[in-house]
Specification:
About 40% of the residues lie in helices and about 20% in strands. By secondary structure, the protein is of the alpha/beta class. It starts with 15 loop residues before the first helix and ends in a 5-residue tail after the last strand.
């Protein structure tokens, strides 16, 4: 484990980007993984990247740890020896915890991914995995931690409130269909990132294949019309997917 030196150092103030990068590097990761060799490998790699890691191997130990200190991000295996990680995840969200949770599991069915995201997961990585991708996804969650998954989401003139079907655009409520809301929430939580069509089809629409229709394009077109005065825009990244950006950035 690598602890962060809290000694005050005089010198130039870091830029916002430098401060963000430093905070990501020093983050406390709670790793819930019952396979000892894999847990040791992940913990070693994260420590080498200057994360502080607390590793536990059971649901009971995880509950104790998360009550005492949920850390800055949780990596959660679903197949634990004394319970299902999904129950742990639901309990965490029912208790009001907003710590980002990255599910790391061998369950690769679309239904499992959708269920985990709906239960409160912020991201989902399937084993086997590339360690570099795991770290990149963790850093992305940490960058978005100022607007946790279970808080209201707001950007520019757009706001999505929990348990509300409508969006608030420039102070006015705008009706959304359930799929439009799910798509907008997904893009908003990953704002600034390029999201490909395959991810949208799987996460928002529940397809593990491309149905060969313009389903995504139609919903994006509907949302674009409804977001005209919101200050944000949905960019098309040709041949890749979509990205939610500030309207000025899309000009």
């Amino acid at each position: 484990m690598i602890q962060v030196d809290n000694e005050k150092v005089e010198g130039p103030r870091p830029t916002a980007a430098e401060a963000l990068w430093t905070s990501c590097m020093a983050a406390h990761v709670v790793l819930v993984e019952d396979t000892a060799q894999l847990a040791a490998s992940i913990a070693r790699g994260l420590s080498e990247d200057d994360f502080v890691v607390t590793a536990v191997s059971s649901a009971e130990a995880a509950e104790r740890q998360l009550r005492a200190s949920p850390g800055d991000v949780v990596i959660l295996d679903l197949g634990l020896p004394d319970g299902d990680g999904m129950d742990l995840l639901r309990g965490l969200r029912r208790a009001g915890a907003t710590v980002p949770v990255l599910v790391l599991t061998a369950r690769d069915a679309v239904s499992a991914r959708v269920a985990a995201l709906e239960a409160g997961a912020d991201d989902y990585v399937i084993k086997p995995f590339a360690f570099a991708e795991l770290v990149a996804r963790m850093r992305a969650l940490l960058r978005r931690a100022a607007a946790p998954r279970w808080a209201s989401l707001a950007w520019a003139g757009l706001r999505l409130d929990q348990n509300e079907a409508d969006a608030v655009v420039a102070g006015k409520r705008v009706g959304l269909s359930p799929r439009e809301r799910a798509l907008l929430e997904y893009l908003l939580r990953r704002r600034g990132e390029i999201v490909n069509r395959r991810e949208i089809l799987a996460t928002v629409f529940g397809y593990d294949f491309d149905p060969g229709t313009n389903l995504v394009d139609v919903h994006v077109a509907h949302l674009r019309r409804k977001l005209v005065h919101s200050g944000v825009a949905i960019d098309t990244v040709r041949g890749v997917g979509y990205r939610l950006v500030l309207a000025a950035a899309s000009d």
